[in-house]
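call fold(seq) -> tokens
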Amino acid sequence: MKEDFKEFLSFNKAERRGIFILSSIVVLLLLYNIFGPFKKKKAKDFSEFEKEVVRFENAKDSLLSISKNKKKTYNSKYPRAKRKYNFHNFNPNLIDENDWVKMGLTSKQASSIIKFVSKGGKFYKPNDIRKLYCLSSAECDIIVPYVVIKNADITQDTKAEFKEEYLQIELNSATQENLELVKGIGPSIAKGIIKYRSILGGFVQIEQLKEVYHIDSVKYKSIKNNFIIITDSISRININTADYYAIRRHPYISKQIAYEIIQYRGQKGDYKSIEDILKVKGVSDSLYQKIYLYFALSEQK
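ret:
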């Protein structure tokens, strides 16, 4: 009987393979049932989130409503005050800060106008009021009809006062502090003038100020009379010994002209006079007039 039971529990190779395949299928089915589409997914509940969104929207609308009501209440409670003017015929050259304030301007505006006058500013005609940056266009429209400046008010002494006095600053030796004494020249322009003077080797004409960055024709016209030039201190290039790079460094001389100057010296020998530069290929009369003072035949002492 024992032999029969042992024979009952023993399997041949084909039977063992069949049992293994069947077991694998059972395991796969169990796993699929646990993790597959037959597993019922728990639906997510968004109801609380939706309630929060609704509460937020209601709160936002409420805050906007309160803000608008406060703004309306503030505007109605504190309406913007309209400035009251009390102008009468006057000469802006002859009144003080208190007079401006009495006529309706702010203390800041009045102070700005008096500062303008104290620095030499004058009003020659009513519309000169419009030169004041502290007054709006609308304010100027109100003030101008009251401005009275009679020709008789401008005596010879007054005209002499109106005449602007100019400084006499030597441009090639001026420091930044000297330059800033000129009305219209601040630190930036003063530094620009000194930097360009160094690049040039010095100024030979007042008109060269127009070549400085930030000095346009209007600015130049307002500052030019404050300067004089002495050319003794000009830094000159020795045309008989300077190499290509030393000559090319000057802002008026192009690469080609620098090359031609060197070529002429190599072919003809040393320059005998500065006028020989006119014989260099490419040097026009106008260019010569700009550069001849920046050259010398020998080293400067």
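The beta strands are 169-170, 227-228, 237-238, 295-296.
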